[in-house]
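User: quick one, fold this
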Amino acid sequence: MSHTSDVFIPLNIAVLTVSDTRTLETDTSGQYLVGQLQQEGHNLIDRQIMPDNLYQVRAQVAQWIADDRVQAVLITGGTGFTDRDSTPEAVTCLLDRIIEGFGELFRQISHQDIGTSTIQSRAFAGLANRTLVCCMPGSTNACRTAWEVILQPQLDARQGPCNLVAHLTQTPACASRG
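Assistant:
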């Protein structure tokens, strides 16, 4: 069965910035993601900025995963290798399935820009309750890389031979698959 559509299917996406220092005014990474998803025709359903607190991040992401209106969650920040970075620990326990290729491809592409420092990136993605959760570093350049090379095509139902839209809740592609 094909995992593509002839028409664009707008998704409902939530954006979370995990940072101890950023505000709406200084959050260039979150703003970049919001701008790109809206430019593509997707819907911003919620946007939050919260400190790098494992339990607060986990609670917010769990709330979005449980909300049938949210089809994807994009998280920027907290994926590094410092003691304060806790996004992977906050989120991975919520996932039903890990998308290994997301982190692998992100690090491969990032190597061109930042060299071997890419080994310290713990970017990852997965599915939970038919909701896509993508976690990427907090830099705007990292978000640009993730969006342009991975997310934009995979969040477009017309992308072939397959895309992630077919696996998400409340889309015509999902409804037709039963």
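User: anything notable?
Assistant: The chain is about 40% helix and 20% strand.
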